[in-house]
Amino acid sequence: MPALVDRYVFFEWLRAFILSVGAILGILLLEDIFNNLKDLLDYGAGLPEVTRYYLVLIPSLVTTVLPLALMVSILFSLGNLHRNNEIVAMRANGLSVMRITRTLWLMGIVLAATVFHLNAKWTPWSIEQSRQIWENYRFADQLAQGDNDEIGLIYNLAFHNHADGRIWFLNRFSEFDYRAFGVTVSQVNESGREQLRIIANEGHFDEYTGNWSFRQGREIEFDTETGEPIRSQVFEREVYPDLHDDPHLMRFLERRPRDLSFNEISRILELAPPAENPRVLPYEVRYFAILTSPLTSLFAVAIAIPFAVGGVRVNPMVGVSKSIGLFALYYVIYNVCTLLGEKAILSPPLAAILPLLFVIPVLVWLYRTSI
Asked: CB of 261 within 8 A of CB of 123?
């Protein structure tokens, strides 16, 4: 009997889960199509290229889809069982709600592990590759217009590499060919005193060797005790093999944290610790939010079961609406905690875990009153 219950509940849930994933993923894709398809077509992308872009984009959406689809599918599957008095029959045979739903808890754990794996490997690949596809078409469109010097320009790009003690300022930087204009690089010691300054009209990053070269510049060496220049040398072109600062990393700070992959955020935090650079604090908050995101799958199970099992039998949509409301409240609390973390009012780990801690008492109350 218990094994039959497990299989029955599982297959009822699985059908609802597949439909929920398809519906929610379709909505997110339609939203992106509405926002971006016209621009892709204007850049000259054809049907094969557009299809490839959306196939690459899908893994980055799945981590958002899975917890919500899990919650909706549990609500509908258990809600239908409850409406047909099948839950009552199972409990009359001595099975507790936890025993009836243990398969769903197991699937919550499996999906939490899946989200963790996606965040570690496939979601970063999807975010980075889909963005690269988009930028390639944008650059190709600008190139077709004939103004090569304006392709992919970022203005006033600044970066502090705390790990290597270098401060960069680029008046202009091209994401297209990795050329920089109006370059200033300062090398500082552990005390923050400037040792060396490189000023150049133009710089270029070689992505194959990982080195920077500069043209029409000057190298100035400073006395770290007095701050006075002790050597100044003009150069026409100079290659610096020790300057391996990746311009990709520099431009990451010009993007919103939610637009970066977990790997890119990790690289930012490695080279620019938030304790030394407050500008990086939102990226640390996002970093811990990604780490704790797999727990959302378990949270979805915990929300859905009491509403589905303890709700009215007439219409499972009553439980759906209530649980979605609680889920929405969770995300409101999540956004508030994220804002407080970015303002340094909360520590980033606390900002990531606090939304879950807020809803735990609510879930305990639901289980006591509904089950």
From this structure: yes
Give the single-character DSSP code of 192: S
Question: Which residues, including other chains, have CB under 8 Å from residue 287's CB and lie 6 or more apart?
Answer: 262, 265, 266, 269, 348
Which run of H or E residues covers position 237?
strand 229-240
Cβ-contact 257, 282 below 8 angstroms: yes
CA distance 127 to 140: 20
pLDDT, mean over the chain = 86
Within the chain, residue ranges assigned H as helices are 2-42, 47-83, 86-92, 97-100, 102-117, 123-144, 247-252, 262-271, 281-292, 295-310, 317-342, 348-370
241-272 pLDDT, tens digit per residue, is 888 888 877 888 778 888 899 998 998 888 77
What pLDDT shows up at residue 20?
93
Alpha carbons 75 and 86: distance in angstroms, whole number: 15
The CA-atom distances, in angstroms, between 211 and each of 245, 270, 353 are 8, 20, 40
Measure the CA–CA gap between 246 and 230, rounded to whole angstroms: 29
Name 186's bridge partners: 167, 197
Nearest to 9 by CA among 109, 101, 89: 101
Q: For a pLDDT cut of 90, what percent of the chain falls above it?
A: 37
Average pLDDT over residues 31-38: 90
Predicted confidence at residue 196, as pLDDT, reads 93
What token pair was written down for 340? 């407080």
Q: Which helix (H) or strand (E) holds 238?
A: strand 229-240
Provide the phi-psi class of 62: left if phi over 0, else alpha when psi is between -120 and 50, else beta: alpha
DSSP secondary structure string for all residues of 136-171: HHHHHHHHHTT-GGGTTEEEEEEEEETTTTEEEEEE
d(CA 337, CA 343): 10
Average confidence (pLDDT) over 157-173 = 88
The answer to whether the CB of 281 falls within 8 A of the CB of 138 is no
Which whole number is the average pLDDT over 55-83? Answer: 90
Which of 72-86, 133-147, 345-359 has the weakest average pLDDT?
Answer: 133-147
Instruction: Tell me phi and psi for residue 167, to 5 degrees.
Output: -120, 125
